[in-house]
Amino acid sequence: MAAVMNNRKYANQYAAVHTESIVEESTPHALIQMLMDGFLMQVNAAKGAITRGSFEDKSTHISRAISIIGGLIDGIDMERGGSIAENLNRLYEYINAKLFQASAENSLEMLDEVSDLMRSVKEAWDAIPEAHR
């Protein structure tokens, strides 16, 4: 048992160092892409947890998705972003509200809705030409 605990400890340490390295080497544009990908993975995992009846896991994944949305909101430049920034902020706030509601109601449909919204934003983000990133 102690060997398993040590292996997990070392694996977690490696993962933390690896993640920190990726973040340090990434552009702001790439970091936003990673957050969006992480959001989609967490929502998908929450859907799986609901389907399995694992409501503790569902709560963990939705909490992580909410945290990611918080990071995306924090990254919005409201001073320079104009109406696009305002609209994006409102969309993220809507997604947050839907995540809370989906968690309370165990709603796969609401999780599908927020995934679809994020995919749309991500597709637009991914389409930004390299020269404008």
Sum up the overall morphology in one term: elongated
CATH topology, which one?
A: Four Helix Bundle (Hemerythrin (Met), subunit A)
Distance between the termini: 48 Å
- Give a count of the beta strands, DSSP E runs of length 2 or more: 0
CATH class: Mainly Alpha
- The total domain count is 1
Mean pLDDT: 88
Largest sheet: none
Structural class by helix and strand composition: mainly alpha
* Amount of beta strand: under 5%
- The CATH homologous superfamily is termed Flagellar protein FliS
Residue windows where pLDDT falls under 50 for at least 5 positions: 14-19
Estimated radius of gyration: 17 Å
CATH architecture label: Up-down Bundle
Q: How many alpha or pi helices?
A: 5
Helix content percent band: over 70%
N to C succession of SSEs: HHHHH
Overview of the molecule:
The protein has five helices and no strands. It has a single domain, classed as Up-down Bundle (Four Helix Bundle (Hemerythrin (Met), subunit A)), CATH 1.20.120. With 133 residues, it is mostly helical. Helices cover 87% and strands 0% of the residues. α2 runs antiparallel to α5, α3 packs antiparallel against α4 and α4 runs antiparallel to α5. The radius of gyration is 17 Å and the shape is elongated.
